[in-house]
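The data are quoted verbatim for completeness:
=====
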Amino acid sequence: MTRFGKTLALEADGDLAVNELNTLRWIDGHEAVVQDLKVTLATIQGEDPFAPEHGIDMFAATGTSEARLKLEIVQALDRDERVKKVNEVTIDPAADARTASVRVTVTLVDDSQQTFEVTR
């Protein structure tokens, strides 16, 4: 399923994933899209000099309302051409108020729904 591209797999901590032969692992299809969307949510807008619009405008979203943070998340994900619609964004702030768990459901251009979670 390469319609959505192919990319190197990442571990949960962002390190490159390797397979049982200790070589880099590739992913494609829905798995690649979901990983790319998670990376988008972990990127501060402007941090990538080659794609300055990529990521979330954390400076606009930090310290504001949950509605503003959701808007920033939706806008960041909508910039990905493989995303047809952001269906739902649920934010669950951690007790320390420094991090939050974000659960997102998107509809991709092939009309499949993908749900994923990130903690940031």
Notes: The chain is about 25% helix and 30% strand. The chain has one domain: 6-119.
